[in-house]
Write a structure and sequence with these properties.
Blueprint lengths: L7 H21 L1 E3 L11 H12 L6 E7 L4 H17 L3 E4 L2 H16 L7 H8 L5 H16 L7 H6 L4 H6 L11 E4 L2 E4 L4 E8 L6 H22 L6 E7 H34 L3 H4 L3 H18 L2 E3 H11 L3 H11 L5 E2 H24 L7 H23 L1 H4 L2 E2 L8 H9 L3 H16 L6 E2 L10 H14 L7 E7 L2 H21 L2 E4 L9 H14 L2 H18 L7 H8 L15 H4 L1 E3 L6 E9 L5 H8 L4 E3 L1 H35 L2 H25 L3 E2 H28 L5 H24 L5 H32 L13 H8 L5 H13 L2 H4 L12 E5 L5 H9 L4 E6 L2 H11 L3 E5 L12 E7 L7 H14 E12 L8 H13 L8 H10 L2 E9 L5 E8 L1
Parallel strand pairs: 1-8, 11-17, 18-19, 18-21, 19-20, 21-22
Antiparallel strand pairs: 2-6, 2-7, 3-6, 4-5, 5-6, 9-10, 12-15, 12-16, 13-15, 14-15, 22-24, 23-24
Helix pairs in contact: 1-12, 3-9, 6-23, 9-10, 10-30, 12-13, 12-14, 12-16, 13-16, 14-15, 14-30, 15-16, 15-27, 15-29, 19-28, 19-31, 27-28, 27-29, 28-29, 28-31, 29-30, 29-31, 30-31, 32-35
Length: 1021
């Protein structure tokens, strides 16, 4: 095997530049993992969630279950003290347990007893207090109070009973029960104990974010060692202790571990698969590894540019955009396949060969993703910029840097490459294969009804241990323990928060009564604002009128005598009923209650923020609830937020598909200017779409968010396969052309490497990776089959040379354009506009009439062959032999002439080789590129290859010295840019050179109305 010839200094320089760009990019740009910052802020649900996240550590808290097999409250309390101590000693927690709650309870009780008149509204007095005033109820309550005083738990309660013998304060304090995370909880010993007395719930707040996987690993290790120590110290064989933690950290850690394991396995398997692919595809397999270099450079260069333009980039745009940029590996593969051949090759030649084939694919993909900047989704605007830049840099790298790294390549040793033969057979199934694929697609249409799954929860994958822990919490503490709604209100003063809470109370009571909410607490229930307190006070005064107070005194006196209380024992209570005054003394919330009530300062603007926990009920409707409460504050409902974010991502990806799809169609039409080719290029994509949706439906796999995201990649790659095939057919006209075979290998290699990469993801444990792998595997496989099986027979029909004898005869002009009908847009448009604008074609008949019998014609400076086509149509028996220095123009001219012409890449003073002396020769608009000696030599050689009296037609440039048309100004500018000298001559000088070469000038006449060109019709003497 021949050695690979690499310009190592250039390669090292490229790697150094890439490293520098990457370093600068990372120093200038922050990679942001918070997706909500890049979501549309005009969506109230998303915007509210972002505000709540900034001010409340909801997603960071841990809840820890300490469980016993048998009921033992003292042991649970001892275990909780042990765990609290271990966690706080670790230095990783801000708060553990409910110590602050315990400390403020006595002060809270004192506040309630002192402010009973302002803590009940009219309805509560009527519905809750009035039923307590019957003699029977009073007797029962006083007997309970007396019994409690006799117990140990009654020590210190005599004062509260004297101030509140009816236990009205308990009704107020019961409102705090909504602060508990579950109904299956009782408060004992300053801790939350389950109803069966076998479990204790501990709440802890870490110092960092629960979504930080580095912290999550530390928390996991700490809780494991703490659980082991707890079991060792307190556990017994008959009553073991089990520590079960839950929190966002577990999901974050599980997702990272599972995704990392899946990714490592996928990289290993994909690397092995791609290595085998390179061995069987390249004569020199190691050379194929360089195909990934352009995509890597494109990603780094795009990141560098964005770093200069933006402060941060979303991790989603970076990862997803990087996957899309990887599509451009096909350009690198194409370059290397054209480079690694049995004959010596030049890097520049390989780049030129794939330029025209790959340009449309790169432009289409760039334009499609660039169109995303017009959507109103910030993350996709960033994705569009990053992807379009990355693809552009990757494509430019292939055509500018690759030829420098591989300036030339020695011939590869010939060896059997069965993979290439297999690809040739796959594309050679013909009409039968295409018909079979179409029948299969029609069958799949009946199943291509996608079932959409827009849940973000479905994108997460957690371990069996985490699932078991979640089931444990739901079983012990209730299904709704993780289903709180958070309401955030903000005001300049705490009194403003109280007023907002007062306004919310009637609506909250109504929703609690109707089942919209199961429970809920706001501070105004215990600390009403000034206006609410005054309204309650007036209701209290109206309720406790003289007659009711007198009756209550008599009932209490009778009950006291029966139970054993002194008659004057409840004097403080009656003082509260009657001597309450006419004004509210104070409704201020003391600072020691702030944390318990969820009140804190906003660090950004120094305002006050209040969080309230609400639990949804059976009649809860998220959309309606959010609409009603959104005027009061910011709402975060985790379930509704996940649903809304999923729907938003889904609808946005769907919109992005439409944007990209329409952009692709528009760009294809602008590039091809042929609706037939646009439709043909879209066939494999439509085939892949229908078959992928049908297959997913038959498999019972819904189209979820990862699948929808990757469908964009599938469309990008599928349309690239189509464009490579269409452009190859246009360029090479025959599937047997060696370069066409390399293009097909390019498509196969690009698709196969992607199929291998995504295929191994189908075996992942992580739901996101597995879904992305399955959708992409099906989509890309069907795209490849569509391009290889359906396109070839269709393209053979669409791009075959039309027969002129079909239908009515064509005019000469139409016949000429007919020859260009299957060519690329540029030569096709060039031919059309040249015939429309250039007076040449109106003037040629005066030099070549129908009486002439021209059979052999030489064309010097053929260009795209339009004048020669005029001659071929004018003289049906003629054959043209031409030369042109530009290989692309030679290719086009050769294809439009067909069997009636032969053109080679060469330049004057060389002339075409002809089998017999030619009847005529043409030199049109080209002698001003030749110096006098080269022109004279060319004319002499032409004279030697012309028959006696053979004709020579020259159109020479003769621009005016005073006023020149824009065409000549463009020509002058082009000569300066290309450093091509121009040799304009006088008419006499041209005649002199013709005469010296043995030609006799018969006609000399200006061309066009301006006369900036002159015709010379000469005859060989």
């Amino acid at each position: 095997m021949k050695a690979i010839k690499i310009h190592f200094p250039c390669l090292v320089a490229v790697l150094i530049v890439m490293a520098m760009l990457l370093t600068i990019a990372f120093f200038h740009m922050e990679i942001d993992t918070d997706i909500t910052k890049y979501l549309p802020q005009n969506d109230s649900v998303i915007a509210d969630a972002e505000h709540v996240f900034k001010n409340h550590p909801i997603q960071d808290r841990l809840i820890i279950d300490i469980g016993l097999k048998e009921e033992n409250s003292p042991l649970l309390l001892a275990c909780s003290r042990f765990v609290e101590q271990r966690l706080m000693q670790s230095g990783m927690f801000k708060q553990v347990g409910l110590k602050d709650f315990q400390n403020v309870m006595p002060d809270l009780m004192a506040h309630v007893l002192s402010n009973l008149p302002i803590l009940f509204d009219e309805a509560e007095l009527r519905d809750e207090v009035a039923p307590l005033l019957t003699p029977e109820k009073i007797n029962v309550k006083l007997r309970d109070n007396y019994n409690n005083l006799a117990d140990l738990e009654g020590i210190g309660r005599s004062e509260s009973i004297s101030k509140d013998p009816l236990a009205l304060s308990n009704r107020v304090l019961a409102r705090l029960s909504s602060l508990a995370p579950s109904k299956n909880i009782r408060f004992h010993g300053g801790q939350l104990i389950s109803s069966d007395g076998k479990h204790l719930l501990l709440i802890a707040t870490p110092l960092g974010s629960g979504m930080d996987t580095a912290l999550a690993r530390k928390l996991s290790a700490l809780l494991i060692t703490t659980g082991q120590a707890l079991t060792h110290q307190f556990g017994k064989a008959e009553n073991p202790v089990v520590l079960t933690p839950m929190g966002a950290y577990r999901a974050a850690l599980d997702n990272e571990i599972i995704a990392r394991q899946d990714t490592e396995r996928a990289i290993l398997l994909a690397s092995l698969g791609i290595a085998l692919l390179l061995i069987f595809a390249f004569p020199r397999p190691l050379l194929g590894l360089f195909a990934f270099l352009p995509a890597l450079f494109g990603s780094i260069a795009a990141l560098f540019v964005l770093a200069l333009l933006e402060k941060s980039i979303s991790i989603m745009a970076l990862g997803f955009g990087g996957a899309i940029i990887a599509i451009t590996v096909d350009h690198g593969i194409a370059f290397l396949l054209f480079l690694d051949r049995p004959e010596p090759t030049k890097g520049r030649a390989a780049a030129r060969e794939i330029w025209s084939v790959g340009l449309v694919a790169a432009l289409t993909t760039m334009g499609a993703f660039g169109a995303l900047i017009f959507c109103d989704f910030p993350i996709f605007q960033q994705l569009g910029r990053f992807t379009a830049l990355g693809i552009a840099f990757s494509f430019l790298f292939v055509h500018t840097v690759f030829p420098l790294i591989f300036p030339e390549m020695p011939p590869a040793r010939k060896r059997a490459l069965p993979l290439r033969k297999g690809v040739a057979k796959l594309t050679g199934l013909g009409a039968k294969g295409a018909l079979g694929a179409i029948v299969f697609a029609i069958f799949m249409v009946f199943f291509a009804q996608p079932e959409f799954l827009v849940s973000l929860h479905a994108m997460n994958t957690v371990s069996e241990e985490t699932l078991a822990a979640e089931k444990t919490f739901n079983r012990i503490w209730g299904e709704g323990i993780f289903e709180n709604i958070f309401l955030m209100m903000e005001g300049r003063q705490i009194s403003e928060l109280q007023a907002m809470g007062d306004n919310m109370l009637p609506m909250l009571h109504q929703d609690l009564a109707s089942g919209i909410l199961d429970s809920g607490f706001i501070p105004s229930m215990i600390f009403p604002g000034e206006k609410k307190a005054m309204d309650n006070l007036l209701a209290w005064r109206a309720f406790w009128h003289k007659k009711r107070v007198t009756q209550l005194k008599e009932n209490l006196k009778d009950a006291s005598a029966t139970v054993g209380f002194k008659p004057e024992a409840f004097a403080p209570f009656f003082e509260t009923l009657t001597n309450h005054g006419n004004r509210v003394t104070s409704t201020e919330i003391s600072p020691e209650f702030h944390e318990m009530l969820g009140i804190t300062r906003n660090s950004e603007n120094a305002s006050w923020v209040q969080f309230s926990n609400l639990k949804p009920g059976p009649a809860y409707e998220p959309q309606a609830f959010h609409h009603r409460y959104s005027t009061l504050g910011k709402i975060f409902d985790p379930t509704f937020f996940s649903q809304r974010l999923g729907e938003l991502l889904f609808s946005t990806f769907l919109s992005m598909l439409w944007i990209i799809g329409l952009s692709v169609i528009l760009l294809l039409f602008l590039y091809f200017l042929d609706w037939r080719l646009v439709l043909v290029a879209l066939i494999p994509v439509l085939f892949a779409l229908v078959c992928t949706l049908g297959t997913l439906n038959l498999m019972g796999h819904p189209l979820d968010i990862p699948g929808l995201m990757l469908s964009i990649v599938v469309i990008g790659m599928g349309i690239d396969y189509s464009l490579f095939m269409v452009r190859a057919y246009q360029r090479y006209a025959s599937e047997n052309h060696p370069s066409f075979q390399l293009i097909k290998m390019t498509i196969f290699m690009a698709s196969s490497s992607t199929i291998i990469g995504f295929g191994v993801l189908c075996f992942s444990r992580h739901a996101l990776l597995r879904s992305a792998g399955l959708t992409s595997l099906l989509g890309i496989t069907y795209s490849l089959l569509g391009a290889f099986i359906i396109l070839p027979p269709i393209l053979r029909v669409v791009l075959r040379r039309p027969r002129k004898n079909m239908g009515r005869p064509l005019t000469l002009a139409r016949a000429i354009l007919h020859r260009y009908s299957n060519m690329e847009a540029y030569p096709r448009c060039f031919a059309r506009f040249k015939m429309m604008v250039d007076p040449m074609f109106k003037e040629l008949p005066q030099f070549f009439n129908n009486d002439m019998d021209l059979k052999t014609i030489m064309d010097i400076g053929t260009g795209y062959g339009v004048p020669a086509c005029w001659l071929l149509e004018r003289f049906p028996k003629a054959k043209v032999f031409g030369i042109d220095p530009d290989g692309e123009r030679v290719r086009v001219a050769s294809m439009v002439w067909g069997e009636r012409g032969l053109v080679k890449q060469d330049a004057a003073p060389h002339v075409p080789s002809v089998p017999v002396p030619a009847d005529a020769a043409v030199m049109l608009d080209m002698i001003h590129y030749l110096p006098d000696n080269a022109l004279a030599l060319t004319l002499k050689r032409l004279s030697m290859n012309l028959r006696h009296n053979g004709l020579l037609l020259i159109r020479a440039a003769a621009p005016s010295q005073n006023r020149r048309s824009w065409l000549w100004k463009v020509e002058a500018m082009k000569s300066i840019l290309t450093k091509t000298p121009l040799y304009y001559r006088s008419l006499d000088k041209t005649v002199e050179i013709l005469s010296s070469a043995g030609f006799r000038v018969k006609i000399k006449t200006p061309s066009g109305s301006r006369g900036e060109s002159v015709w010379f019709m000469a005859e060989k003497g």
